[in-house]
Amino acid sequence: MKRVMKWAGGLLVICILLFLGIIVVLPMVLDPNDYKDKISDLLYEQSGFRLEIPGDITLHISPRLDVLFSLGQVRVLAAPGLSETPLLSSEEARVELSLFPLLKEKRLVVQGVQLHGVYCYLIRDKSGRGNWEIVQSSAPAASSPSPKKKKEASVPVPQGQAGEKAKKVPTLELGTFDLSRVTVRYEDQQAAKIFELKDFSVQTGHVLDGQSFHLQSAFTLISSGKNNTTLFVESSIDSDITVKFSEQTVQLDNLSLENSIKAFGVQGAKISLEGNSFLDLAKKNISLKGVRLNSGDFSIQLNAEVTNYQEPHFKGTLLIPEFSLREFLRTNKLSQPNWKNDSALQQLGFSCAFAGNMKKIDVSAIDLLLDGAHGTGSFVLTDLQHPSYDFKMHLDKLDVDSYGTVVQQSSVVAGAVKKEKEQKPAMAQGKVSGGGGKKVSVNVPIKETPSLQPVFPVKSLRKLQFNLDLGVDSLKIKGAALTHVELQASGREGQLELNPLRAQLYSGNVAAQVKLDVTGELPKLTVTGDVAQVQVGPLLMDMTGKEEVTGTAVLALQVGTNGNVKEQLIRNSNGTVKLALENGVVKKLHILDVVRQAKALYEQKPMVQAAKDEPTGFARINANGVVSNGVFHNKDLKAESDLMKVTGSGSVDFVNEYVDYVLKISILRSLDRDDKSGKTDYSKFIVPYRIQGEFSNIKEEADVVGLFKAGATTLLMGELQKQLDKKNKSGDSKQDGKKSSTQDLLQQGLKGLFGN
């Protein structure tokens, strides 16, 4: 027995010495550098790429079966004829692993991996060929698997054996991983685009199954080229990572991503991403907790859960804390309009909850803060392939005018515009009838060429499916103040409808319905509206700064049109309009003053000046008419006041922006005489009165010839008859004084008519 033990012990010692001798002698006898050419030839046979290994290959095996493999400089040459720069090059590669745990415990232990100075250069020439593509004739095809191997691969494995094999799958234990100075450059000469990933690096701690390790990474991303967006991004990543290979889960804690971006007009914006996430590859679930995207005062906070990310269902919350969007744009040198109001976009905040899948997204509990206005609402998106939107929002107030912009015009552009206007014939000459048959020249501005810009985006509207429910307690738009605004709109298959639109304004209210049909060749628009008891004066003052018309307005209209250009829509408009104005004043209408001026013009006397500005006031104005091809025709205009009664007819041409009205004015009572103003008694006349001209240059004119030829002739004959009666009473009817007596009678008659 002792002899057996001695023999066994001696044999064991011999085996150990032999094993140690092999470990020591093998690296000395076997030099991997002797096989560089064979390795290069093998790679060429399998892939068609040439491999150059100018650096040294080192292989070292320790008595504990720790293997150290290092590789110096390596170059993989690109396909010939495209680029002299290697397809791939590396300065140093180093791998350390332990074989003993693999033999004993089926556990692969990689103690460390290092890779430094890697440069990958990919280029596609103008013909579309890439340097990574090998011509079939120049490279042998990779040997395909033999039929025997295919057959072996297709043999089914019993379930029990498969389970045993699954249990025997080696686990991975990775030591430090160090990757640095990695650059990947892609150049597309065909598309004139260049992308480059520079200075990419990754460092990790000891990677163990189920244990946390730290990861650091950094890179620079650059894009350039004639047809490419200029982009420069510097990024760094820090995170604690836990990987469970058996459960196929990855957990990222304390994730920190720092970015500096120069792109899309952004100059050096700092953006950071923080949070925690969990990825379950087996169940295909993703969890995001406390994720925060920050850039200066701007922040987005997100919590979300995604189940089965192949067919995702998700839910979560989103929060944007209050910040100044205007200041954010300015700080990051992003372009923004020149706002009329300094308060625009100074305050913005948003929060919501969301849930959904790839068929429906439901955004609920929307809470919006915008420059002091607060709103709540919801949003639903269904059928992402053919989207349909349902949006509800209620705001306590909204000042639309705060977001008006000012278009700044450079001195060069302003000078060019001014010069162009000066070169054009500024005015066209026209004539209107004056008193006494005189013609007065007026200047009519030449109209600019109408814009052909489409009013409605027809293609987009045909696809649009939506429901909109909007309410605003207090709204300011174009200076007008509205309250209790209600707006509901919908769109389906090219049929859009706004019904109703209701609001209260200036002691009255307005209601409207709008229908738009874009299914045909030309859009069809129908507008129905009612305005009741609206105070026009304050409305115009707020909107224009001028109170040109005052009174209480009532309006009813129903107009339809078709077209997709502004001029076309106006020209094709047809419908009916009913208008009434109570206790109103039209400040640009000076009927009495114009009549006095017409009288002076007829008498060829200096124009008299009114004692004060006397706009024309009415107790009520009524006008009903039809709109035909963009022209409003009215035949029953009626207006009354304590001084006059007006009837008339006319038209308003919205196509050519021209007004033409003929009025008949009856003065209801005598007016007090005044030497300065020339007021007198016109109560016995019906004054023909005309209003005409372009919207920007409306003229008022009393028809002096018609007034005094048609109406004054009768009065003059009456005065002459009075003078004849006086002469007859005096008995003076001598034949030799006939001529002078007739002249005297005419003069006395005119004096009696005009009060002079």
UniProtKB/TrEMBL annotation:
The chain crosses the membrane at residues 7-30. It comes from the Bacteria. Residues 137-146 have a biased composition (Low complexity). Residues 1-636 form the AsmA domain. GO terms for cellular component: plasma membrane. Residues 724-741 have a biased composition (Basic and acidic residues). GO terms for biological process: regulation of protein targeting to membrane. Keywords: Membrane, Transmembrane, Transmembrane helix. Residues 136-166, 724-756 are annotated as: Disordered. InterPro entries: AsmA, AsmA-related. The keyword Transmembrane helix applies. The keyword Cell membrane does not apply. PANTHER family: DUF748 DOMAIN-CONTAINING PROTEIN (PTHR30441), PROTEIN ASMA (PTHR30441:SF4). This is Uncharacterized protein involved in outer membrane biogenesis.
